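Researcher: Next entry in the queue.
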Amino acid sequence: MKKAILNRFLNYLSVDKGLALNSIRSYERDLDAYLHFLKVDNPGEAAAVDIAAFLASLSERGISPASAARSLAAIRGFHKYLIIDGLAQHDPTTNLETPRGWKRLPKTLSAADVEALLKQPDNSNRISVRDRAMLELLYATGLRVSELIGLRVQNVNLERGFLLVMGKGSKERVVPMGDAAIRAIEEYLSDARQSLLQGKESELLFISQQRKGMTRQTFWERIKLYAIKAGIPQNVSPHTLRHSFATHLLDNGADLRSVQAMLGHSDVSTTQIYTHVSRERLKRIHEKYHPRG
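Model: Structure for this entry, 293 residues:
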């Protein structure tokens, strides 16, 4: 019974919500663990105490805060669906709070660290020219790494300075980019890209040494290398630049809805976490510099 209901929910996510396959698989993994833990055969009969016990079991197993929060989000969505589909009479997650410490603030770089990172590719060869274009574009637009490596040449309008991005759930959005990113891409397109392709054709913008599209892992390794060269102590990932993009925009006066649109968040509450990052930074500055801090 549990498996059949889960399959109905996954089909709902695919057909009604239009979620991408990777997102659906993530829901499936989290909910498989949850349903296996439940003692009741009918998930619609689960109580808040059952969910709290499951969350406690995740903590005991050493599951990371981010993974635990993701599981809780999947459980909330699942129980809301059960009510919509008439499979349950109540939502046991209604008054269930996220345990303190599970909602971590995203790691960001200072503006100075970002500048240092962007300067590391020295444009001395086709790889560094490509890498600089990728880093500049990532910080200029806040793209997800999957969106960055999936960019097609036809979706980049350098004359008008914007990208057409295919985001989560196959939803398109238009994202502006600045002059620095435009110049870096123009330089990459002028010679480096064709040199990497070696006569082969590709619709993808960024090309690997194997004459194929870039992989997430390859770009992850490249960005970590440049962070080390820049002397940045914290672990830097492509998502760190996405977080930095959003935080720096808000720090400099951008409105939340505009940042939400550029990031491709379906819910503004997801974007609001970056306002917390800004407040945390202000608090640290106050504590450091105020004479009675």
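Model: The first strand starts at residue 156 and ends at 157.
Researcher: Noted, moving on.
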